[in-house]
From TrEMBL:
Organism: Actinoplanes philippinensis
GH10 domain location: 1-312
UniProt keyword list: Carbohydrate metabolism, Glycosidase, Hydrolase, Polysaccharide degradation, Signal, Xylan degradation
Record's protein name: Beta-xylanase
GO MF annotations, alphabetized: endo-1,4-beta-xylanase activity
Reactions that this protein is recorded to catalyse: Endohydrolysis of (1->4)-beta-D-xylosidic linkages in xylans
Signal peptide: none
Any single GO BP term: xylan catabolic process
This protein's record includes keyword Signal: yes
Enzyme Commission no: 3.2.1.8
Family under the similarity heading: Belongs to the glycosyl hydrolase 10 (cellulase F) family.
């Protein structure tokens, strides 16, 4: 069976990031996405600069397309991402706006985007990547304007805009043990304690062939113990090119372990890959010398990693 049929048996969403452009232009890509995945995350189409390239001028076409295609295929949509420092519109950060105007723009943006898709989004990454590598809160255009409560503020605005969407805080490099994980845990615990409307925590899980994060299951469980869902939101497993049979086998093992750790935690609701095919993966563009990080190769042929994921889903 497909990954999506197998995942349904395990009461898990199996997701992929999807490119709006590839969906429009590549029927083979669209058909594999529809067949294999029960959840879709727009890879770029919902990012703030994409939907509002100029202040007050919106282009919803790509985001609408992904949502519409997913609906037609009976797939659940995971929204990504209302606020991400690396997706700040140029017009917001060019120094022309006052702090009050930035705050107003952030609130308006969340109301508009989460409001537009109200009822059609299962969950939102409300805030993406709040932490520096050392665990300190990142300084962003909005943290400077809104002060330290900007994260809490963003979650409240998202709840108001779409009361039924699950609201997630998403981060990378926090899968296992470590100072950044501990800082992330303290941040999330503080939000829960203050009554901020947060429903879940996302673990991106962009990794390579080095050993998997230590104590991932325990780490996921401590977040779940706060009363939250946990989700694996952006898995890919890059390798140093060129590929060899041994590297592809190792890659399959890393995918398998990541999924097994999610399956070991009842609150782990979804396992989402950051693109399913090497044809369009972001890795070669942004990580030099690395690539082939996905479940399917560039010809859309399943790799050993696909069989590993299917195998882990099949085992009861
Ligand atoms: O589509 C245009 C193309 O028309 C143009 O010629 C080209 C020139 O630069 O740019 C293309 O757009 C690029 C897009 O990827 C599609 O390839 C953007 O410049 C580039 O910034 C964009 O990168 C995305 C990146 O986030 C930054 O937004 C990647 O697709 C996307 O995979 C990556 O995803 C992030 C998550 O959102 C958050 N977590 C980490 C993850 C990986 O970096």
């Amino acid at each position: 069976g497909s990954l999506r049929a197998l995942a349904a048996e395990r009461d898990l969403f199996i997701g992929s990031a999807a490119s709006a452009q590839a969906l429009a232009q590549d029927p083979k890509y669209a058909s594999v996405l529809a067949r294999e995945f029960s959840m879709v995350t727009p890879e770029d189409a919902m990012k703030w600069p994409r939907i509002e390239p100029q202040a007050g001028q919106h282009d919803w076409s790509d985001a609408d397309r992904v949502v519409e295609v997913a609906r037609a295929n009976g797939q659940t949509v995971y929204g990504h991402a209302l606020l991400w420092y690396a997706s700040t519109p140029a017009w917001l950060a060019d120094g022309s706006l006052s702090d009050a105007q930035i705050r107003e723009a952030v609130h308006r943006h969340i109301a508009e985007e989460a409001g537009r898709y109200r009822g059609r989004i299962w969950g939102w990454d409300v805030v993406n990547e709040p932490l520096e590598a050392d665990g300190r809160l990142r300084r962003t255009a909005w943290s400077k304007a809104m002060g330290p409560d900007w994260i809490a503020d963003a979650f409240r605005a998202a709840r108001a805009a779409d009361p039924h969407a699950k609201l997630f805080l998403n981060e990378f490099g926090v899968d296992g043990d470590g100072a950044k994980s501990d800082a992330f845990y303290e941040l999330v615990r503080g939000l829960v304690k203050k009554g901020v409307p947060i429903d879940g925590v996302g673990f991106q899980s962009h990794v390579d062939l080095t050993p998997v994060p230590e104590h991932r299951v325990e780490n996921l469980r401590r977040f779940a113990a706060l009363g939250l869902d946990v989700a694996i939101t952006e898995v890919d497993v890059r390798l140093i090119l060129p590929p060899t049979a041994a590297k592809l086998k190792k890659q399959a093992e890393v995918y398998r372990r990541t999924l097994q750790d999610c399956l070991a935690v009842p609150e782990c609701v979804s396992f989402t890959v950051w693109g399913f095919t090497d044809r369009y993966s972001w890795i070669p563009n942004l990580q030099s010398g690395a690539g082939m990080a996905c479940l399917f190769d560039a010809e859309l042929v399943p790799k050993p990693a696909y069989a590993a994921v299917a195998g882990a889903l099949s085992r009861a």
